[in-house]
Amino acid sequence: MVYLSEMCMPDLQKPSDDSSMSDDDGILEEEQSDEDIYQSNSDNESSSDSSLDDEDVSDDDIDELDDNDDDDDDDDEEENNDGGGGGDEDDDEEEEVEEEEEDEVVAAFLSASSDRNRNHPPNLSVGVLIGGFSFHPNTNVIALGLSNGDIAMYKYSNEMNEHLRTNDNVHLKKVMVLEFNETGDYIYSACKDNNVSVSDAETGKMKVYFEKAHTAGSFVTALSFIDENVFATGDEDGVVNVWDIRANGRRFSLKKTEDSINSMITINNSNNEPTLACTSGDGTLTIIDLSTKKMVVQSEPYKSVLTSCVTMKRKTKVVCGTGEGSLITFNTGDYSAFNDEFPCVDKGAAVNRLVPVTENIVISALDNGKIRATNLFPNCHLGIVGHHQDMSVDLLDISDNGHLLASTSYFSSVVKFWNIEFFEDFDLKKHFKKINPKEFNLPSSNVVNATDFFSGLQ
Predict the structure, then answer these.
(1) Is 280 helix (H, G, I), strand (E, B) or coil?
(2) Where is the composition biased (Low complexity) (predicted)?
(3) CB atoms within 10 A of CB 268
(4) Could you tell me the pTM of the whole model?
């Protein structure tokens, strides 16, 4: 087992359509209001300063002003501006210069955050909690599984989010898992009462419905496609069920861990046959042979829960997120023990979800509210993709063209979008010449770095 100590770090209502406005709108109105107040104050100061050039003020006048100050507070500011000494005038000029510089920064920030320059859809608010979501593979549509059992469909764009339809009563309880199939014709979903459905994405009509697909009291936690007819689900108790749509039933069931199945992916073995890789709460990665219906291998337990897994490096690597925030990797075909570990930046912040962006870049959803990007092979932190403030980021998905990332929390009714198109031409060497990736906010984050904030003034 190899630990990388040397890293290349420089150091319930139906969904509402009325809430598609971006968070930026409120910020713009507030800051523009501040700008108007500042402009008004600047005009008053200019008028007062010009009066100093037109009048000669004596010491007696100053004494008189001081007396008036005790009698009339309303005249205090105006009279002192007219009768102040040369030192006060210099202070006013310096303060005005500083305020003008700050105003330039504010103007630059307003321009950057303007809706006209937005390169991602506005926040999508649906009024009820979200249990799962999935990007359509071919169109600008996102499906949301809601806490009332409905599935809502939205068309998204940089200008607005349009509610297309709601497939009512697909489930009777909260949707826990939701995925479009490869063509986008069907939606696979599971709810809290363990019913699993395959429904038509356009009409909501059921293709198959597996009632009580898992043991009562242990809801479905993960789903993975195997082919166009076969898929698998995992539950809280460590049970994996494999389903066949053609037979409208379960192929087989397997339980090799006593803890929750947190994620599943399908990986072809050396014979190009599909196997199922499952991460669980006991810190193991379990590989199941789908043809023999048996477990192939189970890794040594990691010191923390394994929360998510994806393939990278042209499917030669399996990368797993952990409960302590680190990323561990396995060589495909060798799952007995992980061969590499990349420590976390945010100590104690669990990785809830992983999404690969390129063959080397993976994005982590953390329970401290941050979304981080990491380059693997070589291992380097790239920076922060986005923030959910103090709310855990539980769900993450990437659009089919790789340009947009969507995220939300299990305790939220809002989906946030992040433009990650810049990763297509990402230059690792240039990136590290000017930033500290631990706290660096990537262009998608909508947060301006200190160095970028004042770069326009240089």
Answers:
(1) strand
(2) 40-50
(3) 12
(4) 0.73
